[in-house]
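Researcher: First entry.
Model:
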Amino acid sequence: MPGVYAADEDALRIMRKVTHCESCPEFRALEQGKRAGLIVKMKREGLSLRQISRLTGETVYGIQKCLSNKEPSPLFQPLHEQET
């Protein structure tokens, strides 16, 4: 349904159902590959990119990269794991 998105309360419920995480920091603590897969699932459940971004703490750009690639984006690595 393009243009029709879940209300924020429903989006939070969907995020909790899909990820089994109660908060953004809990989601961010998950392994990078798992986060990427869960983002794809949340999008399939009807959440918008911005809703996913607000709920997970990931950037909209990072979410777009994740959804457009088969492999997880390096943007999903915690800062201490990224190479400089």
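Researcher: Second entry.
Model:
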Amino acid sequence: MYKNHKCIECGYCCYTAASFPISKADIKRSPEIEKYSIEGEVWYDPETKEMIICPFYSEESCLIYDKRPQVCRDYPRSREQALFTECKGVVSVETESSGNIKDFIKAK
């Protein structure tokens, strides 16, 4: 998470289909994620091999929050990444207001 902002845990990044790398440490911390990986990347359906939304996101919460992959813990790493991925769940620490990241970038 980049300086002066925090995640409001809206889940937008969880229910938006995307592929990203996982590490051996991620699999060790949460072995259940391995079945959703292909060549070190997640999230893929184990049967169809098609990209899917995170299978551990349920009813606006993460079922493996304490064991989630590092990339989930670090997202977004910058304003640019948040803008590029259209992050909707970032809050400005200074204003405590939430909304689309484009609004925060304009304000800075």
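Model: Note on the second entry: The longest helix spans residues 101-107.
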